[in-house]
Design goal:
The protein is an alpha/beta fold. It has 7 helices and 7 strands, in the order βαββαβαβααβαβα. Helices cover 43% and strands 16% of the residues.
Length: 237
Amino acid sequence: MSELKTIGITGASGALGVELTKLFRKKGYKVIGFTHSKNNHEINNDSPNEWIKWQCGKEFLLKEHLKKIDILILNHGIYDKSKENSNYESSIEINALSKLKFLNLFEEIAFRNNSPIAKEVWINTSEAEILPALNPSYEISKSLIGQLVSFKKNLLDNHEKKKLKIKKIILGPFKSELNPIGIMSAEFVSNNIYNFANLNISLIIVSPNPLSYILFPIKEIYFFLYCKFLKLSKINN
């Protein structure tokens, strides 16, 4: 990220989105914040340069806005805290399918981009992709988006990889409105995401849980080998 770019952040009004926005603004980047909140969002030195309101299920309306973006950070999501925890459809739609729709739109834009500099998309999936979060609907939705991203990333061909870089972000518990007892601060997490991304790492893990640093790389190696097999099988057929 040596050249200043335009950053798009979904969930920009949440704890992590706010800290990522402040960080990128301080570094001199232009930030476009995507939010589904109905509140009127101010624009100041710590806020996005531009706010875009959107609705889940209507991601296709954002295509023109996405064309302006060099790095898209998919950070939005919900955590259903109801005791029944039966709201599987909403969790899957917002945490997984909505992010997939954003990714598909941005992928299409990237593949048609004539710039020699690849566009990037960073997807926040969460440790709940494979580790328990005491919330079945959350775990299922995170597992789904995690697998979708792994397949998307590893099934790109060499030409497509020059057009689009996909980074997966695995985060442990951090303090936010949804998780007031999180161990890490959102500021600490955002700084680590930025620093790891600058090292050109495609699997970014920020967690106090040592198991994450073992299990997730193993899973990504499995997907890499499996997708390589799928590519070879396609060629042979």
